Amino acid sequence: MIADVLDGRAAVLPVPADDPHQSAALATALRAGEDIDDAVGAVLSTSGTTGTPKGALLTAAALRAGAEATHERLGGPGQWLLALPAHHVAGFQVLVRSVVAGTRPVAVPASFEPEALASAIAGMEPGRRYASLVAVQLDKALGDVAATRALASLDAVLIGGGPMPAGVAEKASAAGISVIRTYGMSETAGGCVYDGVPLRGVEVRIAEDGRIELGGPTVAVGYRNPVTPDPFAEPGWFRTDDIGVLDAGVLRVLGRADDAISTGGLTVLPGMVEAALATHPAVAECAVFGVADARLGQRVAAAVVTTPESSVTLAQLRSHVTETLPSSAAPRQLHLVDELPRLGIGKIDRRELVRRFGESD
After folding, report:
1. Which of 100, 107, 147, 323 could bond 82 through an S-S bridge, CB–CB 3.0 to 4.6 Å?
2. In degrees, to the nearest 5, what angle opens at C-alpha 49 toward C-alphas 44 and 52?
3. What is the largest CA-CA distance in the chain?
4. pLDDT of 51 strictly over 70
5. Domains detected in the chain
6. DSSP line for 80-106
7. What's in the keyword line of the UniProt record (predicted)?
């Protein structure tokens, strides 16, 4: 079927095979079976902040361009490990890259147990071998010796889907795992910026308001369910909801514009606060979000998973953050949690954190 898509003979709407309710909802919302432009090869669901599936319209040319540019950056075509749901863009692109490379992907069960990961990699063929994971999967694999060694045997491990927990990249590097951080989304046929550097043909620019804009052959032609304002208004470009900076041509993503916290008339980006918190020895994982405040408009709140047998106070974290950031960025509210709520393939669910703790004093 993927070969038919890439040859322009079919258009597909990937849905989760193990969730009939969600599959039916996506099929209805994205009008499966109805007419679509002949150039479109795949409609990949993406909801953004509205919760309504928009459906990125990706041409066969965009999908192929992303796969070919990825192989070029990594050193050549190879066999891929499928460890992410195929209805998400990262998993779907593993299938596309496999067809383009003429190889068969090796799948890991959805539970992603380290033993199964090691076994799947052991079953891969000789030659160049790659995997595409999210940070929480890499973190889990690093807790198992066999899985860690298996990942280290691969030529590259792409990591996307959001920020990486503190220390994970360092542990992976020390174990000999070739980690590449990717940035992209359904609207760009998946990751199109690797370690801050755009793939061949991809263009990156920063708009006046700080938003990242991506252009080039991997960009979708629009949404199945268009929105206003249209992020595809300029042909060949996609205006993201992310804030970033370019330093000597290398992109650094600072956070999402709609996650920004307005506190006391100042703007705080959660990602920057999370990066500062993550350097505290007692912080294993953290998420920063804004909650309503009668005086400040919003106040900065943090949910923290501590390292084993560690404890930390709000005062200690505030002091730690102000070593590198303005005092306005320091959390005014702390919640110690056993785990962080996540969405889809590992992204932090900030809305759930606001729902849980938004009324806290």
Report:
1. 107
2. 55
3. 62
4. no
5. 2-254 (3.40.50.12780), 260-357 (3.30.300.30)
6. EEE-S-TTSHHHHHHHHHHHHHT---E
7. Ligase
